[in-house]
Amino acid sequence: MLRRRQAPKILDVPLTTTVVVCAYTEERWDQLCSCVESVARQTRGPDELILSIDHNETLYRRCADRWVSGRCGDIPMRVIRNKYEGHLGSARNSAAEVAAGDLLAFIDDDASAEPTWLAELTAVYESHPESVAVGGAALPVYETARPRWFPSDFDWVFGCSYAGLPRHLATLRHLIGANMSVRRSALAAVGGFHSDDHDDMDMCHRVAARFPEGRVMYQPQAVVRHYVPAGRVTWSYFWRRCFFVNKGKVAAFAQMEEAANLTAETRFALRSLTVGLATSVRDLLRGDVFAVLRMAAALCGLGLAGAGNVAGRFERTAGARKQRRPARA
Questions:
Q1: Residue 81 forms beta bridges with which residues?
Q2: In terms of Cα–Cα distance, which of 43, 173, 59 is closest to 120?
């Protein structure tokens, strides 16, 4: 966990950047290499690249051998181990603790950055010095054809940008974990990432609460291409993510305490019930028969999200009662 430090001055314009890539499986080796190569091809290159390996010694050794020179092109590069017991959030903390950049830019190991990705992110901090965190768009690259029943509002299910996100630079409550950045000093001020499953949401809420004069911003021009395997566009994956992600959010929001804010979730639900369904009706009237399935999937997704929230609350309540129950003699 990052050590808490004095709050940074929001007007400090960051000068240096560290790109962080976290990896945990050799199954993504080709994608990981493509990710690293895309960072090396940036029009505005980072000052360093850190590859944080999450509890996989074989992968760590393979990466250390692959980048034994300590450089990726002209960029200094380090391969480190996640020293904490958790997974993605803790792997990012392990990297953040040794990073030197004023900005930390995070990209997933199965994503590839467009050449102007880092330049677009950094430019927001320079033009809007009140920014404490900035994210970009994660556009899908499908292994198989996208199912026509899959509603565009729910592309968050496989970690990509979804319908309803701003089309131009704007403030946003919750950035996409596959493509986000934060001031290193701001991340340290909130004690780093506190969650593994909801690390992006947790970080965004905490820095927004910690720096009320600052802004969390979304720049859709900062683009990464996020790989979507065939298994992530199935009904089984869809309903499980809708239910279990929102079930897990209950505990995540509870841990945030005063930093928690449900505005993004409320707006998403309202938009799906209005604009999203209206779009499907329009598509149906134009002869797209799959629009009926998209409407049904969206309604099911919202219902499953609500059920997950209820289940999460019940679980927390039952757990609290169990802790309060006196032990039998």
A1: 53
A2: 43
CB 200 within 8 A of CB 134: no
Q: How many angstroms from the chain centroid is the CA of residue 224? A: 12
Alpha carbons 198 and 111: distance in angstroms, whole number: 18
Going by C-alpha positions, the residue among 201, 205, 213 that lies closest to residue 131 is: 213
Please list the pLDDT of the chain residue by residue as tens digits (329 residues). Answer: 444 444 445 545 668 999 999 999 999 999 999 999 999 999 999 999 999 999 999 999 999 999 998 898 899 999 999 998 888 889 999 999 999 999 999 999 999 999 999 999 999 999 999 999 999 999 999 999 999 999 999 999 999 999 999 999 999 999 999 999 999 999 999 999 988 888 999 999 999 999 999 999 999 999 999 999 999 999 999 999 999 999 999 988 888 888 778 888 888 888 888 998 899 999 999 999 999 999 999 999 999 999 999 999 998 887 767 666 655 54
3-state secondary structure of 262: coil
> Rounded distance, CA 92 to CA 88, Å?
6
Distance CA 329, CA 316 (A): 26
Comparing CA positions, the residue from 204, 183, 177, 57 lying closest to residue 111 is 177
- pTM, rounded to two decimals: 0.90
Whose CA is closest to 15, among 43, 40, 47, 39?
A: 47
Domains annotated on the chain, with CATH: 17-233 (3.90.550.10)
